[in-house]
Design a protein that fits this description.
Layout lengths: L19 H23 L9 H20 L13 H20 L3 H14 L3 H4 L3
Helix pairs in contact: 1-3, 1-4, 2-3
């Protein structure tokens, strides 16, 4: 489901109005999700349905690759050398999240805004957590 500011000027869980920046972010992230998913489909990654466990494992593998880049000095990426290895791998994390979200019809943009609002209301360190 694609969402834009005119269709939904608030996150439905709170009915709190969106700022212009939040509405723009939601539109942009939803558009990027669709573009990323279309690319993945065109490259053959969605010839059949993919299970959630596989998709989440792939997201995790990209985060692990970012950690490895950092462990090895975070030099330039092999594929996009104007960025560090960690930057490239974190971009891959986001790309995989957005691909999965588009494939599943999830409202990831709205969820990010709502989660940020929730976190803003939490206690310092969520009530005393160490990490």
């Amino acid at each position: 489901m694609e969402t834009n500011q005119t269709e939904m000027p608030f996150v439905p869980e709170t009915k709190e109005p969106l700022t212009d920046a939040q509405a723009s972010f939601i539109d942009s992230i939803n558009d990027l999700s669709q573009t990323i998913h279309a690319t993945a489909v065109s490259k053959g990654w969605w010839d059949g349905d993919r299970n959630n466990g596989e998709l989440i494992a792939l997201i995790h593998s990209e985060a692990s690759e970012a950690l490895e880049a950092l462990r090895h000095g975070n030099g330039p990426s092999d594929h996009i050398p104007e960025f560090s290895g960690a930057e490239e791998e974190m971009a891959d994390v986001i790309i995989r999240v957005l691909d999965m979200s588009a494939a599943r019809g999830w409202r990831i943009g709205e969820a990010i805004i709502e989660k940020m609002r929730f976190n803003d209301r939490r206690a310092f360190r969520h009530g005393g957590k160490v990490f």
